[in-house]
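User: Show me an example of a complex going from sequences to structure tokens.

Assistant: Sure. Here are the input components:
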Amino acid sequence: MVDRIGKETAIAREAMRAAQRMVDEREASTRSIASAIEGAPAPRAADFEPMLAAGVERLDRQVNSAESLPIDLLTGKVDDFHEIAVQLKNAELSFKFAMEIRNKLIDAYREVMRMSV
Amino acid sequence: MDGTNGFFTGMRICASGLTAERERMDVIAENLANARTTRTPDGGPYRRKIVLFEPILAEVEGEERTQGVKATHVGVDRVTDFERVLDPGHPDAGPDGMVVYPNVNTVMEMSDLITAMRAYEANLTAQENFVRMAERALDLLR
């Protein structure tokens, strides 16, 4: 009986480790995508929180730069409407991309939290 | 060069096409507006202007590549003859009573305008497709 419980805990531990590996892999892949967005070097720490914070900060920068574009048009810094439209669309797509990555990260986190031990 | 530049290259190329076609339309509009201009600072009637396009050269990974189009020069049509109309009462009429009007053919300019508009629309359609492609690719993440 004791043997059996020991065996089961070992299996559970193994499963936990596998899940951790999966999360790590997922984080690594999302990180490479996230760094592709900005061209910034991939953050080295695998910590969830700083990564999320960095992502939010990046989003903030993008949205801020997108916000100034219509003002540039109105103040005559940019001549073409389509130039603004294209840049806004680029910002929007980057934003959506980042949001999807954020959702993936949170999903992965929830998945781990939901795991019964 | 940041990572998404590669992805947005197509969109930038389309945007350059849009800008170039817009500039071409500007020049056509100028031709149309000056179709009856008989005096210019250079003397003589207005001459038809033609916009010249050139590819944009960009250095990608150490090699030169063309990335989009740019309206670089506005040339002047010196080949087409001016239109000569007999109108002795016109202040700019010559001693023979002939007025020299610009070498702008309004019908031709209008057809050029249509071509420029269609080219602009083609660039816009390509642009829309790039956006749609990106959005479809983002759906993969859902």
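The lines above are the inputs; the final block is the predicted structure for all two components together. Chain A has one domain: 2-114.
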